[in-house]
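Both lines are given unchanged directly below:

***
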Amino acid sequence: MNNHRSSLGPAAVLVVTLLTGGWLLQQGVEQEQNVYVQTRLLQEVIDHIAERFVDPVERQQLYDEAVEGVLRSLGDPNTSLMGGEDFESFRIQTEGDYGGVGLEIVERDGFITVVSPIPGTPGARAGLRAGDRIVGVDGTNIEGWSSQRAVGVLRGPADSDVEVEVLRPGIDERIEFTITRAQIQLRSVAFSTLLDDGIAYLPLSLFQERSGQEVQKALEELKEQGMRGLVLDLRGNPGGILDQGIAVADLFLPAGRTVVETRGQGRNDSGSLRTSREGAFEDLPVVVLLDHGSASASEIVAGALQDHDRALILGTTSYGKGSVQSLFRLSGGNVLKLTTARWYTPQGRSIERTGANGRDEEQPGPLALDEGEEGRPYVLSVDGQLVPRPDTAGRPTVESAAGRTLYGGGGITPDLLVLPDTLTRDEQAAVARIARQGGALNAALFDFVVRYVQENSELSPPFQADDAVLDRFYESLADREIEVDRETFQRARRYLAREIEGELALQAWGEEEAFRQQGRTDLPLQRALELLRTADTPGSLFELAGQAIPGEAAGPDDQDGDDADSR
């Protein structure tokens, strides 16, 4: 009996296999036929429209709009189709040496939105701010454009002018800026300095080809000078080359630690990137400063150091740009830039700021100055920057490697939320009215400072813009036919004084002294210095900030990868 059952087994299996294989084959054929039918349907619709629609329609236009419709339906501002010229603009921009205005931009909610002006570039000098929505370039309305298309018109020969129109939260009408393009040669570390009590300050403005080496060299020099604690400033850093973000994290973490994970649909789109060597500064107490202008690689570095309990993150929540774009060459010289994965921190937090439907979350719209305080997602800092209010309510939580509570939900939420000094409601209204002058006021302030420095060669830091200086600046506005009433000017004096003081320090004594001038009233920086002056180990730094580690930090990465995948 047993032999009988045994002899029938293979035959039965064969029959089942043939039947199942036939069914699967049929399913595959039907799916292939269905795709063919849908493709043919699209072709027929376009043919009928092109040949019989009551008004003439270009066939190529129909194809272009069909492709745009497919891409738009993804709800992803980072996915786009680039023509040959657009791709060349994209390539030149990402290589970090080009003629342009120096703005990191994305498409958000149908608007080209400034993530951050790169420090020292024409866009930053003209007065553009993070959160500004660019709606016009040289008289052309660019609402609804892709970021690549916008880059194409913002770039141009050095010393050429470009007219930019901006919508800014709190201001009803468009603001006009005339920006003189320059050859953008980006620097990662403009300077580094050792402050009191052995605390070092290192601003990292973006991640480019040599960022890791620049940071390491600066840290080694600071260590020789007696560095015992570090403020790593990533505020306004829009990101850049991922490999350099890994290289910077490598300096502070042990070998083998996960820095970031990617998760996507494709076979090669998921994986993790880890540190490859022992960190040269892994015992150094570190505070990382973040703000809403910190994006992409900045968030990857901050998230890794936070998840591994390696650095205290301080400031405001970062931007939330955490997706991976891959380039696919197509026919006709076109290139598809497609989001193929998202970045996740070692403990499984998505960096991308997404809504309930899983698509990119719309950034808050323009700020109405007459809204109630509780209804305003942003306030203005004393230097005119948009500052998001703390947004931890309702965010999901995870635990760090050592058991501290961390917030997810997109972007990197600091361990210690510290807002910069903000303007009062009256001051914000005054600054908003002054901002309507656009680039004209920034140009007037720059010229005033340069002339003031030339006429006062005996100046020494620190500089205070007192009433006499402010009154003199106000009088100079009339010479440039800039109309600002005295009452508005008076209410905006605190903002204007800070702008004059910072620009004068920069022109008279350079970037490091400009930092020292502004740093005296930089609340996040001052809080970071206060903590580091007392802390002698990374663990004591967390304790001082009320972030005590429940137990010993996790060892090399034998437990964080699998846990993150399960979240």
Q: What stands out?
A: The chain has three domains: 92-185, 193-355+374-421+544-566, 425-521. DSSP finds 17 helices and 23 strands in the chain. The chain has a mean pLDDT of 84.
